[in-house]
Amino acid sequence: TVYIWNSNIEFKNVCTKIYLDVEGYGDDIKFYYLIGIVIEKEANLIKKSYWISFKEESKDIYKVLLNDLELLCSEEFILFHYGSYEIEFLKYLSNNVEMIEEKTFIQKLILNSVDALPFLLYNIYFPTFSNDLKSISNHLGFTWTSKNASGLDTIAWRKCWEREQDTEWKNKLITYNVEDCLTLKHVVDFIYSI
Asked: Which helix (H) or strand (E) holds 182?
């Protein structure tokens, strides 16, 4: 049973919805090494991953990400995320691009973003021990490739990739990241259904 505390939840309905998930590590010096987006546009799903092998590549990959988003988000859109990590990434990105047009577009992404987590903290209650994305999406029937994986596992996988340069670790991370975007879509779809 799902308990709905406030049934007046409302997301704006737009043609383009972006689901963003970012993987990274580091406290003082952040390294965002994998950005996943799933874009739902006119009933089509576009999945993209932006892998960064070395910090020196970051700016080039971020530029590709922003160009892709700008092309795909030419009209009204909402960018969904879960928690504050992705907004921290966008703010970091804004501080690390040079062109004013890029900064302006990143601000547009931030202004059009919606954190799905507060809707589940204050309005909808699931019979789970936690409000983390995996617990909620598992309850809603989403199936993961790596069943018990967590954000901590991704850091270990990344370290294995850095040590071994084995594509198996990279593919595992990319799959996990895309599934994070898809599970976010799954949860958002449920909220829309209310």
From this structure: helix 167-193
pLDDT digit string, tens, across residues 95-150: 988 888 889 999 999 999 999 888 877 777 778 788 888 888 888 888 888 877 88
Residues 6 or more apart in contact with residue 6 via CB below 8 angstroms:
122, 123
Q: How far is CA 97 from the centre of its chain?
A: 20
Nearest residue to 39 (alpha-carbon basis) of 188, 142, 151, 143: 188
Task: State which amino acid sits at residue 142.
Answer: F
170: left (phi over 0), alpha (psi -120 to 50) or beta: alpha
Q: Which of 26-30, 35-39, 63-67 has the lowest mean pLDDT?
A: 26-30
